[in-house]
Design brief:
The structure holds 2 protein chains of 2 kinds. By secondary structure, chain A is mainly alpha-helical. In chain A, 67% of the residues lie in helices and 5% in strands. Classes of the chains: A mainly alpha, B alpha+beta. At the A-B interface, helix 1 and helix 5 of A face strand 2, helix 1 and helix 3 of B.
């Protein structure tokens, strides 16, 4: 993946609505109209998010002129995730130790 | 079950990491600002220790972190200066990672609700390239270090 493409991918993933759309599409393809309802957003707003995701290569749109169903592009997502996951793993290790330290310092905490 | 860590890239020069802790903000703050506490958790990948952790918690005061891979002696450091301190709420500091050019601005916020504290660490890098480097190498905000080296060691152990 080129560095420009990866930038577009990270940019696309930075937005919580777009991450939620991807999570929804991970369950199966959906049309714009099918995405409007669960997200309680206007169709133009959803379409704008879909354009960003499409440009980043994270989704593709079907040819069916009526529905143009959106589907997730697993390979692009996996490439971006590889970086993020490795980075996240580092913080997870640190934060797991911090949890243990906080528990030790905060004995009145009830579980 | 450990709580999830959220990693996002709000712009092409930023990384933002967020996590909820089951403790009041004052305590979480202490764990981020008192060297004797920081050294107990901010260690990076398995096998690393934190031989140096100095924090002069004043605006204009410096901090110095140094990590060491105890297996091969590799070291990595980060230094910086505190720019804004709002006790238990917000900590802004510059950060210079060894081997990376330029200076990042690290903003840490602590938001308490119902006895839990959400910590958000925003790292603003001088350029997109340095941001990408930090993300790729798993190094940032002193969170250090040689994952590649770790991968090698793990691979060696599997073979052997």
């Amino acid at each position: 993946m080129s560095s420009e493409r990866l930038d577009a991918t990270f940019m696309a993933l930075a937005d919580p609505t777009r991450r939620a759309i991807l999570a929804r599409l991970a369950d199966g393809e959906a049309s714009v109209n099918e995405l409007v309802q669960p997200f309680a957003m206007s169709q133009p707003a959803i379409s704008k998010h879909l354009k960003v995701l499409e440009r980043a290569g994270l989704i593709s749109r079907g040819r069916d002129a009526q529905r143009r169903p959106c589907r997730i592009e697993a390979a692009a997502l996996a490439e971006a995730n590889r970086w993020i996951e490795r980075y996240r793993a580092l913080w997870e290790g640190n934060y797991a130790r911090l949890d243990a330290l906080l528990d030790e310092l905060n004995p009145q905490k009830k579980d | 079950m450990p709580k999830p860590v959220t990693v996002t890239t709000p712009s092409d020069r930023e990384i933002e990491v967020s996590r909820v802790f089951d403790a009041p903000a004052a305590l979480v703050w202490d764990c981020h600002t008192k060297p004797e506490l920081v050294r107990r958790w901010m260690l990076g990948p398995p096998g690393w220790s934190m031989p140096v952790c100095e924090i002069d918690l004043r605006v204009g005061g410096a901090y110095r972190h140094r990590w060491r891979n105890d297996a091969d002696g590799t070291e990595f450091g980060e230094t910086g200066v505190h720019r804004e301190i709002v006790p238990f709420k917000k900590l802004v500091a510059s950060g210079q990672m060894e081997g990376f050019g330029g200076e990042a601005v690290n903003t840490m916020t602590f938001v308490e609700a119902d006895g839990r504290t959400t910590v958000t660490v925003n790292m603003l890098f001088p350029t997109k390239e340095i941001r990408d480097g930090a993300l790729q190498s798993g190094m940032s905000d002193g969170m250090a270090m040689g994952y590649d080296r770790l991968d090698e060691i793990l691979a060696e152990q599997k073979v052997g």
